[in-house]
Amino acid sequence: MITALYNSVLAQTSMMPTGVPSLDLLTQLVAALGPMGFVMWLVWRTTNHTIPRLAKSFEEGVDRQRLDFRQMMTEQRADFMRELALERELRERQMDRFASATEKLAKG
Asked: Which of 21, 69, 73, 107 could be a cystine partner for 25, CB 3.0 to 4.6 Å?
């Protein structure tokens, strides 16, 4: 449909010697396409500019979140290991005290 419209407008107007359509041709095409041309431009703009930019922004955000999550998990693991080490030392001291108290009771 658009090709036929372009060809009919091209047949009605003259081409410039350089092979570039004249300004009249372009204005006639834009006037003939009207709202449909705007919709086609909007679809083209959305698919070529808006969606890729949004996708890139989303991927960058996800990458930042992933990095933050990994850092948080590393810190939590280190904290957990420290707490386990402290708990282990506490239990060892308790067991030593129980053993020494049991020995004292046994000696009597």
From this structure: 21
Cα separation, 87 vs 102, whole angstroms: 22
Distance CA 71, CA 6 (A): 59
**Is the pLDDT score of 66 beyond 60?**
yes
- Partners of 15 in beta bridges: 21
Domain residue ranges of the chain, discontinuous segments joined by +? 2-107
Look up tokens 């996800």; give the residue: 62
CB contact at 8 A, 22 and 14: yes
Q: Helix (H) and strand (E) counts for the chain?
A: 3, 0
Is it the case that residue 76 has pLDDT exceeding 60? yes
Q: Cα 21 from chain centroid?
A: 42
User: In whole angstroms, what is the distance from residue 56 CA to residue 61 CA?
Assistant: 9
Q: Which two tokens stand for residue 108?
A: 């009597």
